[in-house]
Amino acid sequence: MAKLFDPGAGRQRVDRYELVGEIASGGMATVYLARLTGVGGFQRFVAMKRLHPHLATEKEFVEMFLDEARIAARIHHPNVVPILEVGASAVGYYLVMEYIEGDTLARLLARAATRSKRLPVGIALRIALDMLAGLHAAHELRDDAGEPVQLVHRDVSPQNVLVGVDGIARITDFGVARAASRLTATRVGQLKGKIAYMAPEQAAGEESLDRRADVFAAGIVVWEELAAKRLFKAENEAATLSRVMSEPVPPLTTLVPGLSTELSNVVMRALDRNADQRFASCAQFADALEAAATGKERIATPRELAAYVTEVLGDEVSAQREAVRAWIARSEPSQVGLIAPTTPSTSVSAAAMSVDPAQAGTLTQNTGPKGRSPAWLFLLVALLLLLVGGGSFLFARQTGPQQPISASAPPVAAAAGAPPSATPVESPEPPAASAPAPPVEASAAPVPVPVPVPVPVPVPVPRPVLQRPRAISTPDVTVKKPKKKGDDDVDLRNPYRR
């Protein structure tokens, strides 16, 4: 399980990855739990293996690190932890792997030992078969030219077998793997790997190693799974090396009550010190285990393995999840409850953003509930009608009731031709527009007419432009509601309105 960092001490980043906690550390690199974030709340947890900074200048270690990434990235198998990315940053080289939620086989064996229990035979065989399947895929790896890479893992151990809560076991850590295309070569007399899980020829420093060395190491792992004890481990490396080279291997039937002789013989064949007597490949080893597992030694299914891992590590896995959630909440309090970003994403395709012109009207009309208009729009229309009606009423009160003016006879001319009077005279109903005024006939001889003294008569001056409407008897006006057209945009808040 990862040991999470304190968010208050500052957030640590390596390129686009944010470090959450430390999973494990070794002499060459440290494995971190990292997080990759993206648009729309996307996040993915990965395992980042980073080379120690003080080894960044050591050519041999850098080449070993890059060899691991380059070799493992070619292996595509469900029982091999995949390499997602390799890079270099200011803090050194790193490689990114898929994060497996679970723990190592070594931790499962240790938990079973603390409870004074053995790993169930079916569970042990399920893990062994997954491990052998991943190793066989690595052994069968070929280069771009189709030639075998002749890869040998050389570090098969319970620490490098990850058992996930999904019920799948995976082989990992190809850091000391041997291949024909490696950038580095092991020096004579130099041992790489864990001595307690080495084949005799590997411990002797032989150069001509092949996949059968991994078969021997896998046999040690299966033997320890079933026996619930270490096979060659001693007080120091020298004693451990001596036991690997010469100490006899006790049969499992003497240690595991009720275990079949067939199953014990299969494991003993994998542990034969003569490489020619072992299984030629991990696939043959797996086939022999499946054939020998009968009756009560039935191999567990992935679902049963997942249930067992949840039973043993469920509390720790749940605590880890809650700790990570709390870590995210503390490191990014503003992101809690975030649904979507407010700025558009450049990763959205143009096809997803395009709108068919034929559907533009439909998109505009469906911005609100069908058949309803906002309440503020009705209030605005009612207020405008009230202002218009009230203004008309006040205008009619000030000017008084008057007859409309005929367009055919200007009012000034009619007033000039009327006889003078001291008081305004109410005129009768105006003649129809179709009856013109009779022309004035010229007399034969002018007759002198006394000129009256003009008396100022108040003549209402009409507005020259505006036609005054008919007098409104009441200010209450019922205005017919305009009929909404099909393409009207009644929602003024719609950003797509024309």
Describe the structure.
The protein is of the alpha+beta class. The protein has a domain of 328 residues: Transferase(Phosphotransferase) domain 1 (Transferase(Phosphotransferase), domain 1), CATH 1.10.510. Helix content is 33%, strand content 11%. The strands form two sheets. Strands 1, 2, 3, 4, 5, 6 and 7 form a seven-stranded antiparallel β-sheet that branches. The chain is elongated, with a radius of gyration of 48 Å.
Write the layout of secondary structure elements.
Layout: E1 3-4, E2 12-14, E3 17-25, E4 29-37, E5 43-51, H1 59-72, E6 83-89, E7 92-98, E8 102-104, H2 105-114, H3 121-139, E9 161-164, E10 169-171, H4 200-203, H5 212-227, H6 237-246, H7 261-270, H8 282-292, H9 302-331, H10 350-353, H11 360-365, H12 375-399, H13 411-417
Antiparallel strand pairs: 1-3, 2-3, 3-4, 4-5, 5-7, 6-7, 8-9, 9-10
Helix pairs in contact: 3-5, 3-8, 5-7, 7-8
